[in-house]
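Re: the 164-residue chain
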Amino acid sequence: MKIKLLGAFAAVALLAACAHKPTTTGATTGASAATAGPAPGSEQDLVANVGDRVFYAFNKSALTSSDKATLDRQAAWLAKYPQVQILIAGNCDDRGTEEYNLALGHRRANAAREYLVAKGVSPARIKTISYGKNRPVALGDNEQAWAQNRNAITSVQGFNPQGN
């Protein structure tokens, strides 16, 4: 009987020890410091803190006021990181011909590029490409998927230490 009681106390003691949370000293290690957030000027920083895409209406390449707000944040971010070069990719939903969608994707990418240039971003820092309907971000043949695929996505492409 004593052995069973002693075994039960030992089990409870082990469970209590496992449930104890370690105390924190406030000091950070290299591993936890690296997970504190995206590196400044990185693609992840752009996505997390600014927004990397604008969306378009069906068969349109005109920017809305919310698109312009996103591009304003991108322009400010690019001003903060003058060494960063970007690529703007124009995309379309899967309706329409390949040729039409490639041309529309170019118009969308160029609309975003021209807006950033007008906000003071050097044109030499911006490249554009159209993927037409070849790189969907959402799968499906419905308005929700199509709306997500009608976009221009800005991505970090290079780092120029001279900033020009």
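Residues 14-32 have pLDDT under 50 and may be disordered.
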